[in-house]
Design goal:
Length: 892
């Protein structure tokens, strides 16, 4: 008769601890630590996959004292308390186990080992095989013909023979062996001087501890006898502590441990919240989002009736299908619309056959406009999209301007979870909704033509677009309450969403670029790079490929004998930090730094920008990204116009190629020392407040203090040092970092830092309070309530924790500055329209706004810009703006 399937008893607490210490700290998008939960879940899945157990239970230790603590107060006394970042994960582990619907062994005042021992022995007495899943040696005392111990991490199975092979005694003698040896990890004393080998030899002669002590006179070694006699009491006491209890009330029937089907909905919800995206895909592969209720609508009269039925709708969701990703060039192929997830329509407009001819039976734009325009123009009807900036721009270009209020599920996701690496619709649908969307490659059959979607038949386009519209609606239903719960609705509705049309207009406008300036600069840089290459080869005494780190490393460290920096698997490191350290020692590293910087400018901007000039507008149209930087700052891409160097001659030459419309001028407003003013506002430091309120130069004031100088004696170099300290310290720069930046000793750097905090004690208090608040709440906020989760703020990993602490200080400062510049953009746009000026916003570069204005409106624009930027928010110190007017970007 075949033996019944075994009951698996998992030592849950042990594997939670093991996962916590084995895996680097991880967190989900909301900042919750997850590495112990993930490690335990992977162990559980390994058991479920490899063993497919019919019966399984998970045992947990109870928190608090056990009977062993009552017997011996010193039991585990030297162990530190459970780390807080482990304690906060245990409830999540238990939620995972509960979602798998597994049996639980847990009892107040009892350890998991004793619960496992009681269950294993009770089951074995009924002839039920048991597999204990653990790496704990104490559980090996339970091994017999019916009970084995399996450690899936070490891939080792212990039966009686394996136990004897490892310890030299059988499982039935392990308690006696452990009594002799003691257990340092649990603070259990044994017999001093008796090690594993001697203990096994003694128990090889005597079957038990009792028999050993009865047979002491027969021992040949007087020293061993003396040791055993001296420690007799603690040996027997240790045996009482080490022996596992097997009399606890636990289920003795295998059916109590039956593994049922898991609660997939609960698991999906948990894995989504925890950010276990890989497990979502491997264990709970997302089902395709239903397209029921999605239909093609190509009848204008039916469309008119449907639009009329949406008179009392709470919102309308939309999604444009186009021939391109650039809204300036995109032609509308189709439009998905819905007032609720249950009914979605797809309007085919520009689908073509294989020969490029428009397919019959579609709607014309001329027929669609008079029906949809009133709907889209309603200011009492919110419009929802995922990346509304694109859809609104496309519709406007086709004569269908979209009135607000606008809702954007992508921006909502960003505000709720700014640490999330991507806010793409398909990823959010899978992560939050647990559904899979059809990919663009699938619907276009991998057609690589830029206008591939135009060749997708309407009946295939309809479910594809319907999925996107439905997913957008469902995401909004999930994210809208989250915005409210986190106190982010005001930021969403009053700042982020009103900013979208402004950014869309800025992208549409672009900024004019003069290619002839770049062409001349390209020629000059090419000549300079050639000269530098020759000079570098002369300094090296040999020709080599400057762009090859391997060859450069050989020249620097082998040929020239310069001090070696860090070495990688592929050779010597020649990164910028290494070259900076070597520059004072030899001319070659400095020349290579210059060569690299010029080559990067030439490749990234000088030679690349002309290809990005729109042939119709003569302008470069960058994209402004709202959902990238966790601080709330905007970023710029394709091209990135925020990273053009401003302090180098070459960078200024590049900026000089950016010019206004003919007959117009550029007007720029730049917040003066906005980060430090935010620090003054938050810290309420008297000296900092006084300096800004009196209009003092804050860097001069700091220089006076750290150099102990008299007024009027501050040099340019002293001011430069003070500036580095002012900005470096508030972002967590250490004495080591300051010393490296200023090329001074660490002792001198520490002296400067000490003097800084002595003069500005409120800044130190602010930094300490922010870190304490972040530890308490797990996140920090900006002036407008923008949140940034800090999952590593209480991490036991020093590097991760200190980075989180620096981020905790940085975010309220840099994030508040981002809030203020966004408010300034909103105010400037509103006031320009109210004043009837033709001036228009072109760029936002960190703390600066750049506009272009007709020549006769420059003064009015400059005055308006100053008023808008300085009046957006009342800080504890004045907001000051520097206004500049010029004929190119270098001049402003």
């Amino acid at each position: 008769m075949p033996s019944p399937p075994p009951v698996y008893l998992l030592d849950g607490s042990a594997y939670i601890y093991r996962a916590f210490h084995a895996i680097r700290p991880l967190s989900n998008a909301a900042g919750l630590l997850t590495h112990a939960t993930l490690g335990f879940t992977n162990t559980l899945l390994k058991i479920l996959r490899e063993r497919a157990p019919r019966y399984l239970a998970v045992a947990y230790d109870s928190r608090g004292p056990t009977f062993r603590h009552q017997l011996f107060p010193g039991y585990k006394a030297h162990r530190p308390p459970m780390p807080e970042d482990l304690a906060q994960q245990i409830p999540w582990v238990k939620k995972v186990v509960a979602a798998y619907r597994l049996a639980i062994l847990e009892e107040a005042g009892q350890e998991a080992d004793d619960l496992i021992a009681s269950a294993a022995r009770a089951l074995a007495r009924r002839g039920q095989p048991v597999v204990i899943v653990s790496g704990d040696k104490d559980l090996l005392q339970l091994v017999d013909d019916d009970i084995t111990v399996w450690d899936p991490m070490a891939e080792r199975l212990f039966d009686p023979a394996a136990v004897k092979d490892r310890y030299g005694v059988g499982p039935e003698q392990l308690v006696d062996l452990f009594a002799l040896l003691g257990d340092a990890s649990d603070n259990i004393p044994g017999v001093p001087g008796i090690g594993p080998k001697t203990g096994a030899e003694l128990l090889g002669r005597f079957p038990s501890l009792d028999a050993l002590y009865q047979g002491l006179p027969a021992l040949a070694s007087a020293r061993t006898r003396e040791r055993l006699v001296a420690a007799k009491t603690q040996a027997f006491f240790a045996r009482d502590l080490v022996r596992l209890r097997d009399d606890l009330a636990v289920p003795a029937s295998a059916e109590a441990y039956l593994v049922p089907p898991p609660d997939c909905a609960a698991l999906r919800s948990l894995f989504t919240e925890l950010g276990f995206n890989r497990l979502l895909k491997s264990e709970l592969p997302a089902e395709a989002l239903s397209t029921a209720g999605c239909r093609v609508l190509a009848d204008p009269e039916e469309l008119a009736r449907l639009v009329a039925s949406w008179r009392n709708a709470s919102l309308v969701a939309l999604d444009c299908e186009t021939t391109a990703l650039d809204p300036k060039r995109a032609k509308l192929v189709g439009l998905g619309l819905a007032a609720a997830p249950e009914e979605i329509i797809y309007l085919p407009i520009g689908h073509r056959d294989a020969n490029g001819q428009l397919l019959p039976g579609q709607l014309s734009l001329d027929a669609v406009r008079p029906i949809l325009a009133p709907l889209l123009a309603r200011t009492d009807l919110p419009k929802l999209a995922h990346n509304m900036k694109f859809d609104a721009a496309v519709l406007a270009a086709h004569g269908l301007p979209l009135a607000g209020p606008w809702l954007d599920s992508m921006i909502a996701s960003y505000l709720v979870a700014p640490n999330r690496p991507s806010h793409k619709l398909d990823l959010l649908a899978e992560e939050i909704l647990g559904v899979r969307l059809t990919s663009f490659a699938q619907v276009t059959a991998n057609d690589r033509r830029p206008d591939a979607f135009a060749y997708v038949p309407p009946d295939a386009a309809c479910p594809y677009t319907g999925e996107d519209v439905r997913a957008c609606l469902l995401l909004w239903q999930h994210l809208s309450p989250e915005l409210a719960r986190l106190g982010l609705l005001d930021l969403f509705a009053r700042v982020e969403m009103p900013l979208v049309p402004i950014l869309a207009a800025m992208e549409q406008t672009g900024i004019r670029v003069e290619p002839s300036v770049l062409a001349r600069l390209s020629t000059e840089l090419a000549a300079e790079l050639t000269f530098l290459e020759e000079e570098i080869h002369r300094l090296a005494g040999v020709s080599f490929n400057i762009n090859s780190p391997k060859q450069l490393g050989e020249v620097l460290f082998e040929r020239l004998g310069l001090p070696q920096g860090k070495k990688t698997k592929t050779g010597y490191s020649t990164d910028a930090a290494v070259l900076e350290k070597l520059a004072p020692l030899h001319e070659l590293p400095a020349a290579v730094i210059t060569f690299r910087n010029l080559a990067k400018l030439k490749n990234t901007y000088v030679d690349a920008l002309p290809a990005l000039i729109d042939p119709v507008t003569g302008r470069v149209h960058t994209s402004f990204n709202q959902t990238v930087a966790a601080t709330g700052r905007l970023s710029s891409s394709e091209p990135n116009l925020q990273n053009i160097p401003i302090r180098t001659a070459e960078g200024q030459r590049i900026r000089s190629a950016f010019v206004p419309e003919t007959g117009w001028r550029l007007v720029a407003g730049d917040y003066s020392q906005i980060d430090l003013r935010v620090v003054a506002h938050y810290s309420q430091d008297p000296a900092l407040l006084a300096a800004f309120r009196s209009g003092d130069d804050i860097h001069d004031r700091t220089a006076l203090e750290i150099f102990r100088a008299l007024p009027g004696m501050v040099t340019k170099e002293m001011r430069r040092v003070a500036k580095s300290i002012n900005f470096g310290i508030i972002y967590g720069m250490s004495a080591f970092g300051l010393a490296n930046q200023l090329n001074i000793s660490r002792k001198e750097a520490q002296t400067f830092i000490d003097r800084y905090f002595a003069h500005y004690p409120g800044v130190r208090r602010f930094m300490d309070e922010v870190i304490a608040q972040a530890r308490r709440d797990g996140f920090v906020t900006t002036i407008l309530g923008r949140r940034r989760p800090l999952p590593d703020i209480a991490s036991s990993n020093k590097v991760a924790r200190e980075l989180a602490e620096r981020t905790a200080i940085n975010t309220p400062i840099q994030g508040s500055a981002a809030d203020l510049i966004k408010l300034a953009m909103l105010a400037a746009d509103r006031q320009l329209r109210q004043a009837g000026l033709n001036s228009r916003l072109l760029l936002q570069i960190h703390d600066e706004l750049v506009l272009e204005a007709p020549a006769d409106q420059v003064d009015a624009t400059a005055a308006l810009l100053r008023q808008a930027m300085e009046g957006v928010y009342e800080l504890a110190v004045p907001l000051t703006v520097n206004i500049a007017v010029g004929d190119n970007l270098a001049e402003v």
